[in-house]
Write a structure and sequence with these properties.
The radius of gyration is 22 Å and the shape is globular. Helices cover 23% and strands 23% of the residues. The chain is built from 9 helices and 19 strands. The strands form 4 sheets. Strands 2, 3, 4, 5, 6, 10 and 12 form a 7-stranded antiparallel beta sheet that branches. It has a domain of 270 residues: Peptidase S8/S53 domain (Rossmann fold, 3-Layer(aba) Sandwich), CATH 3.40.50. This is S8/S53 family peptidase. One of its GO terms (molecular function) is serine-type endopeptidase activity.
Length: 478
Amino acid sequence: MSTSDGPTRSNNPLSALLRLLRLPWGRPRSEPADVRPTDPAELGREVRRVQAGIIRDAFKGEVATAGPENSPVKDDADLTYLYRPGHLLVQAERLDEVLTWFRERGEDFGGEPEPVEEPIKGRLVTIRLPSRRDRADDVLATLDELDDHFGRQDDADSPPVATPDHIMYVTTRGGLCPATEPEVPRSRTPWPPQEADPTPAPDPKDKIRVAVVDTGLWMEAIDSDASPWLESDDVFADATDEERVDRTAIHPYAGHGTFVAGVISCLAPETRIEVEGLLTRGGAIWESRIVRQLDEALGDDNHPQLVSISAGTHTRCGRPPLSFAMLAAEHRLAERDDVLVIAAAGNDASDEKFWPAAFSWAVSVGSVDPDRKVSDFSNYGKDWVKIYARGRDLVNAFPVGAYTCHEPPHAGIVRKFDGLAQWSGTSFSTPIVTGLVAAVMRDKRIPARAAWQAVEATAIDEHDTRINEDIRIVGPLT
């Protein structure tokens, strides 16, 4: 990632937006105007600043950023990952060793660390860090020293003793959001198209159970004229996971979880879809909070059979996130046939691993365009992206109201929605794969991993010259 020689800019999203409004492509206007800046590189950097500012505002300062060298950055355009300041995740079985290390280094810290929560009981502990007397970054500098002491572990099967509590976000394109902001669709029908209900309909107790880890569910989409495929009998959320939307000013990332649920419903009617409202703070959440919820869900007797995650993060040193490594160990995700995690590969146009999609036990999903070429925003990598599906210009449910674009070159444009939107990103190729797997589970009455293998067997093999890799594609394209 390139670096900036210019002055550090404000990270406040309002300041960033006002700054954009002073630029020629940022003046308020209505569609269809689309004036692009002459410097694409600076455009991308401005987008990243604005998106990071949204997360900063949502977390009210409880967020820090690191660059490619795992050091703090002054300009959010240079960030590689975000993390929770003042906290570490530690393997529970190594906690005493870590606390002993702090005590032996007592003169270097202004106190002792404090265990504050246990996201996965017996596996993972969150600790609050004391301040450092050298005033170095409390998380990054301390982890460098812990690596020196305990040894560096990069293997998912041998996770590090301690890591940052990374911030996970809805999948990115050189920034911290889906590959595009939502657009007004040209069609009043969903894409992918709605499949016919199965005959006979499955008994309610036999319906496939899917968990969508996302921004929550906008309840007005259920049983609406605009999205009748979202039926109240099958798509639901707890009261705490319902998404509240101001129709006069739809907030960033609103409708993301509803859209994802709609894609699954279109491809796999008569599927029980529970939308978890976890990514509610600027489309982001600490990884420890996601795994705490997933640990509870997977430990339930009526656990989800498919978990669809259209979110993730790059990580410190590119290592597997400790939280998901511990979740996989606790619930034997690499061995079980009855639970499958399907996760977005991310939209950085990069081959750098994006987690949790990059775990071997997950089905990582990249995006292709209708012409079978890898989307210009999609991450890729033959050693970790398992499958591709269309992620360009999908149409599905979205809140009714006015949305003001935040990102250049469209910053300031007001888009008005009436229940559907068009959206792009690996966020949306992921539920295509989830829907395909759920439909096979329903029709063949086979467990999750076997159904995934059946879907994978239908893949089209292509060679993509842009990334110079062989890829495999499933699902509808046109």
